[in-house]
Amino acid sequence: MPLGMGKVFLVGAGPGDPDLLTVKALRILKQADVVVYDRLVSAEILALASGALLVDGGKRQGEQARIQNEIHQVLVEHARAGRTVVRLKAGDPMIFARGGEEWEHLLSHGIEVEVIPGVSSALAVPALAGIPPTYRGLAASFTVVAGHRENFMRTDWSQYVPLDTLVILMGVENREYIAESLIRHGRDSGQAVAFIENGTTAQERVVESTLGAVAAGRVEVEAPAVFVIGEVVRVRSRLSMARAELGDRSGRGRRGSYERA
Q1: What is the pLDDT of residue 61?
Q2: Looking at residue 131, which CATH number applies to its domain?
Q3: Do 110 and 211 belong together in one domain?
Q4: Which of 77, 100, 119 is the C-terminal boundary of a domain?
Q5: Which residues contact 84 (CB under 8 A, 6 or more apart)?
Q6: What residues are labeled active site?
Q7: In a shared domain, residues 58 and 129
Q8: What's the average model confidence in pLDDT over 98-120?
Q9: Residues 52 and 164 both lie in one domain
Q10: Per residue, what are the HEC states of the chain?
Q11: What is the pLDDT of residues 40-94, one digit of tens each?
């Protein structure tokens, strides 16, 4: 690395709750000169980088390619100026976050990169809402699927029909199409599903329903939300009842809200 060159850290901010940042992520945020952050990174987490220049790297629909090029330029510019740069992404930087692309681009410009993994919303959000992605006797595996991406309409949904648990990120906008495609290829329309909006935050909202109801357009939900499909969703009601009993005895309330559609 050339003398005076800075370094870029690709950092996962976790699913939203600042307490779910890793210790290393918190330490690097406090040391950063520049933080280039994504749209879903919370204000509470950004406040932890109080001494840094904050650069909004959030992408808008239809402008992803242009904004990504600008992000590349900003990262290279600040690293070449000798600064410690944090590229802060919601969840984990290597899961549907273009972390690998940015890593490759920076290396091609001779810039040192270090990855600091984050707690992925694909696992943490369902788990904290009471939905274990795997459960003995119900699901021995889970699959994380992108619900919105380039060439999305070419997805072969038949490959996902026999799989145990599907965790779909960025799938709110295309939820009806996803559900209809799975049913058309043989997945049970009565299978349980859940959407967890704003997971791990005070605004968390959980909507439980069935795959058929989603396909029929009867489930109202807003992004960001994690979309879970599988019999493990039914575990939540048992856990919720047990937690409610404990909450009643301890005087502690539940975070967020719950609906059945």
Answers
A1: 64
A2: 3.30.950.10
A3: no
A4: 119
A5: 6, 7, 9, 28, 31, 32, 33, 34
A6: 38, 59, 170
A7: no
A8: 97
A9: no
A10: CCCCCCEEEEEECECCCHHHCCHHHHHHHHHCCEEEECCCCCHHHHHHHCCCEEEECCCCCCCHHHHHHHHHHHHHHHHHCCCEEEEEECECCCCCCCHHHHHHHHHHCCCEEEEECCCCHHHHHHHHCCCCCCECCCECCEEEEECCCCCHHHCCHHHHCCCCEEEEECCCCCHHHHHHHHHHCCCCCCCEEEEEECCCCCCCEEEEEEHHHHHCCCCCCCCCEEEEECHHHHHHHHHHHHHHHHHHHHCCCCCCEEEEC
A11: 999 999 999 998 999 998 766 666 778 889 999 999 999 999 999 999 999 999 9
Residues 192 and 248 in one domain: yes
Tokens of 147: 């619900």
pTM over 0.70: yes
pLDDT category, 251, cuts 50, 70, 90?
Answer: very low
Residues 255 and 202 in one domain: yes
Q: Inter-axis angle of helices 64-80 and 99-108, to 10 degrees?
A: 40
Domain count within the chain:
2
Across 226-232, average pLDDT: 98
The domain containing residue 53 runs over which residues? 7-119
Average per-residue pLDDT for the chain = 92
Q: Are 145 and 160 in contact (CB under 8 A)?
A: yes
List, for residues 179-217, the tens digit of each pLDDT value: 999 999 999 999 999 999 999 999 999 999 999 999 999
